[in-house]
Design a protein that fits this description.
CATH class of the largest domain: Alpha Beta
Number of strands: 14
CATH superfamily of the largest domain: Lactate dehydrogenase/glycoside hydrolase, family 4, C-terminal
Radius of gyration: 19 Å
Number of helices: 10
Shape: globular
CATH topology of the largest domain: L-2-Hydroxyisocaproate Dehydrogenase, Chain A, domain 2
Largest sheet: 6 strands, parallel
Length: 307
């Protein structure tokens, strides 16, 4: 088992480290165009192996030869957001980067499963699928897991309870129009509405939608990477271990929830084949409308691409 992470910035390097420490692959390859950076970070990670107790070999490269025959490729390459930027502001620049990366991945690892993390997430996942020509179950965007983790974190902070007891689901595009499903949110099975009034819930939902820019505004020179890398690695683990996890991921819609011709976050079953099933759950009218609106925004941005 070989796993490649493209992009040795904060998200990519942290994802590679987590994959190695969890021993999800015999070999982890970190690819980046900047000379010496993936090699140095990869060697540094591997030198931690005797201390952390893992045997995954980590190596860095400026090319794709070392990535050949990877089972999974995590794409994090692209420019990061700065204060005042939306995810959509990154679209033109990152589309070119993801297109080039995908072409080189396909040439070396034609059977790989692609996990896309680059922003704007849903549009970049479309770029990867379009360029690769892969079936939709092998091209998956990391978004809903991160958005759900933020939502769960904010609820736990608000209520002063363990994050482990928060069950939640955030669907839709990875942006301001994401759709936290309040009707499926509970604390140890107890509906969130038992603990919070509508005003508090609305505030938590809004904070979730702005979770990424909140961190960008703090950092000023970068964007979030601890939680995004953890979310991507949860997807990797579900696939490697064939766990059949039910997780919110960005997938190509082919009639599910009445949506077509776009990527958006839906509940999926992740296993060794990638997306093994899309789970359709009943939504109330407000949630249906919000999900449709979110998906249509992604579709409109996809239409602006010039591939």
């Amino acid at each position: 088992m070989k796993i490649t992470v493209v992009g040795a910035g904060n998200v990519g390097a942290t994802a590679a480290q987590r994959i190695a420490e969890k021993e999800l692959a015999n070999e982890v390859v970190l690819v980046d165009i900047i000379d010496g950076v993936p090699q140095g970070k990869g060697l540094d990670m591997y030198e931690s192996a005797p201390i952390e107790g893992f045997d995954s070999l980590v190596r860095g490269s400026n090319g794709y030869d070392e990535s050949a025959n990877s089972s999974i490729v995590v794409i994090t390459a692209g420019i990061a957001r700065k204060p005042g930027m939306s995810r959509d502001d990154l679209q033109n620049t990152n589309a070119g980067i993801v297109k080039s990366v995908t072409e080189q991945i396909v040439a070396k690892s034609p059977q790989a499963i692609l996990i896309v993390v680059s922003n704007p997430l849903d549009v970049m996942t479309y770029v990867a699928m379009k360029v690769s020509g892969f079936e939709r179950h092998r091209v998956i965007g990391m978004a809903g897991i991160l958005d759900t983790a933020r939502y769960r974190s904010f609820i736990a902070m608000e209520l002063g309870v363990s994050v482990e007891d928060i069950q939640a689901l955030v669907l839709g595009g990875h942006g301001d129009s994401m759709v936290p499903l309040v009707s499926y949110t509970s604390v140890s099975g107890i509906p969130l509405t038992h603990f919070c009034n509508q005003e508090t819930i609305d505030r938590l939902v809004k904070r979730t939608a702005n979770g990424g820019i909140e961190i960008v505004n703090f950092l000023k020179t970068g964007s979030a990477y601890y939680a995004p890398s953890a979310a991507a690695v949860q997807m990797v683990e579900a696939i490697v271990k064939d766990k059949k996890r039910i997780l919110p991921c960005s997938v190509w819609c082919n009639g599910e929830y009445g949506l077509n011709g776009t990527f958006t976050g839906l509940p999926v079953m992740l296993g060794k084949k990638g997306v093994e099933k899309i789970i359709e759950v009943p939504l109330n009218e407000n949630e249906k409308a919000a999900l449709k609106k979110s998906a249509e925004e992604v579709k409109a941005n996809i239409a602006k691409l010039n591939l």
